[in-house]
Amino acid sequence: QVRFVESGGGLAQPGGSLRLSCVVSGFTFSDYHMSWFRQAPGKEREKVATISSSADKTHYRDTVQGRFTISRDNANNLVYLLMNGLKVEDTAVYYCNVPGQRADGSHFGSWGHGTQVSVSS
Fold first, then answer.
1. Among 51, 69, 71, 121, which is disulfide-ready with 82 (CB 3.0 to 4.6 Å)?
2. CB under 8 Å to 108, separation ≥6 — which residues?
3. Nearest C-alpha neighbor of 61 from the set 41, 83, 79, 42
4. Mean pLDDT by 10-residue block, N- to C-terminus, for the chain (121 residues)?
5. CA gap 33, 41 in Å, rounded
């Protein structure tokens, strides 16, 4: 069974930092690219960052480029998102997943509960 468990969210002030973690199980982690997604209230879920299976390539949406860093630990089935320079507009529930062609943007069609990130002064 594919499983994603996100953690590390919380309340941060504008300009602050948070580090999200996600542990996965149920598939061969090192075979797949991994992404972080987020969904803000009243908005569609969007992909924030992607890292290749071997961690040699990363990609970020424009709004987080230069502020967020995605990384992974293939030995322990972990993926991270370091978020610096947080902005109020980064407030959302953050999810990790394998990016894919399904309508929901995932490969397996299964999602974790996510972790809430709130940025406010």
1. 69
2. 2, 27, 97, 98, 100
3. 83
4. 97 98 97 98 96 98 98 98 98 97 91 97 93
5. 27
The β-bridge partners of 51 are 34, 58
Strand partners of residue 83: 18, 68
Selection from 96, 40, 36, 82 nearest residue 61 by Cα: 36
- Rounded to whole angstroms, what are the CA distances from 9 to 18, 24, 29, 93? 7, 17, 22, 8
Q: Residue holding tokens 């320079």?
A: 85
Asked if 57 and 51 touch (Cβ cutoff 8 Å), the reply is yes
Q: Residues, the chain, total?
A: 121
